[in-house]
Automatic annotation (TrEMBL):
This is SDR family oxidoreductase. The lineage of its organism: Bacteria, Bacillati, Actinomycetota, Actinomycetes, Kitasatosporales. It comes from Streptacidiphilus fuscans. GO terms for molecular function: aldehyde dehydrogenase (NAD+) activity. One of its GO terms (cellular component) is cytoplasm. Residues 3-213 form the NAD-dependent epimerase/dehydratase domain. PANTHER family: PROTEIN YEEZ, PUTATIVE-RELATED. It comes from the Bacteria.
């Protein structure tokens, strides 16, 4: 298939691009810069210059593709509501272009939900609806097009998609630990994060493209929930700094924007995804990556 991938040069997107190319698919990757375009060209992908703020360009690339994998998102935490509105507009424009074509549209999402007291499952619908909700309500927007001749699939990624050269949430926690001279967790550290290695996440995306039915929700989760105090302890040991508890009321001052996420209990099952796609994670665990030095360079 000829697949249009937004975020193709990002952390998850670069792994997805490699996975697709290695299995015979052609990739057209959205590139905001000359550097991103050159990186895609070097892989054997085709660069499509544009951004999430140019819906017409996104629509043109979607129209020319056999499938779309939308992984990009404007991670602007100074204007998160605005980022959500941009996401909604971009997704809506691509979906309208694909309407009636029966082509796949895979959309990156997260595991945040209103579920309490048990792991989130693929049967749990996102509680976010509308342009002013989390990520512009894009997951429910996309899935609604299953009745309009599109094959939408929600890709729910664990909060830590880890591996060598990761620059995401775990890398940010490592940076803060280095700056503070201590690896912190919030309160008693009992809140948990699901985790997945980026190679496993990329393989799940490719299998979802090839196998998942319209309306499917897929969980890129290898470890269902790692306690935040254990994550902090592993980072502290790697950096040679102590592990400390940070009072909830001090979390914003200590962690900055990532504190709101590190304090969430984000636990999820991927049992249905594994069965549906015949997907079994085989990559290193988060703690194995930390011990191997995946985050040493972020100090």
């Amino acid at each position: 298939m000829r697949v249009f991938v937004t975020g193709a040069s990002g952390w998850i997107g670069s792994a997805v691009t490699d996975e697709l190319l290695s299995h015979g698919h052609k990739v057209v990757g959205l590139a905001r810069s000359d550097e991103a375009a050159a990186a895609l060209d070097a892989k054997g992908a085709v660069a499509h210059r544009g951004s999430l703020d140019d819906p017409d360009s996104l629509a043109a690339a979607a129209e020319a593709a056999d499938a779309v994998i939308h992984l990009a998102f404007k991670h602007d935490f100074a204007d998160y509501a605005g980022a959500g509105r941009s996401e909604h507009t971009a997704v809506l424009r691509m979906l309208d272009t694909l309407e009636g074509s029966d082509r796949p549209f895979l959309l990156a999402s997260g595991l945040a939900s209103g579920v309490v007291g048990r792991p989130l499952t693929e049967d749990d619908a996102s509680p976010f609806h509308g342009v002013d909700s989390m990520r512009g309500g894009s997951e429910n927007l996309a899935l609604s097009y299953a009745e309009r001749g599109v094959r939408p699939v929600a890709l729910r990624f664990a909060p830590t998609v880890h591996g060598m050269r990761d620059h995401g949430f775990t890398a940010q926690l490592t940076k803060i630990a280095g700056e503070r001279g201590a690896a912190g967790y919030i309160g008693d550290g009992s809140t948990r994060w699901a985790a997945v290695h980026h190679s496993d996440a990329a393989r799940m995306v490719r299998l979802g493209l090839e196998k998942a039915p319209a309306g499917a929700r897929l969980h890129a989760v290898a470890e269902s929930g790692l306690p935040s105090r254990e994550i902090a302890a592993a980072l502290g040991e790697q950096l040679g700094v102590p592990t400390v508890s940070v009072a909830p009321e001090d979390a914003d001052a200590h962690f900055g924007w990532i504190g709101r996420f590190f304090g969430m209990d984000i636990v999820a099952s991927s049992a249905h995804t594994r069965e549906l796609l015949d997907w079994t994670p085989t990559g290193p665990t988060l703690f194995e990556d930390i011990a191997a030095g995946a985050y040493a360079l972020t100090q």
